[in-house]
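As a warm-up, study this chain.
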Amino acid sequence: MAAGERRGIITAWDEVAEDFSAKRRRPWPSLSDLGSCKGERVLDLGAGAGRNTAEFVKQGAENVVAADISAKMLGIIMRTASARTGVVDVVRCDAVHLPFRSDTFSAVALIALIHHIPKKSNRLTATKEAYRVAAPGGRVLVTAWARGQLRFAKKIPSMLKRRLKGGEFGDACIEWGKKAQRFYHLFTKKELEETVMDAGFRIERSHGERIRSRLFNENWVVLGYKTPDRRGA
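Now compare it with the structure written out below.
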């Protein structure tokens, strides 16, 4: 990822961290797809303010590594009750360059992370990194915002404009109040499945997720696994 893109992402998330934490307290609904993580070592990649980290601790995970690019988000995690259990390790890093050994985690969660990474090549690299650090037989859960939502219809002209300028269709900037513009790549279901498979994972299941909408899938959810006979990249 280019240095300028990285700085922009860090700045945006640092600016919204406190407000985001106050408004996003519940664990992601589809986290249940990953199954129980009791006694496991878990990587919460793109942990944000730690709402899913707290759920892994609640499940009885042996160790949870909360990794994020935003220092302010990680600072919020360090103030939580979860961090005081001794189970949570907080690591600041970029998802495309993970500072972990291969074959380490029995469960890896990329919840609402991959759609914030610019460029298809970077998103694939991040998913390949998740594959590398997953233990043989380990599970991965990847979620991303779905493109075909009515609320994004007004973004189509700007997405077309980005595409004509060499970007990817599906790229959009979504406002967080007046604080920041956050980059998103809005996915199709097929696109997310292909990203997970191209990284090396086998897909166990994939589905749409509706949280507020009754008509449109708001997220795509893919559960995959690293075959037991594979190690490293």
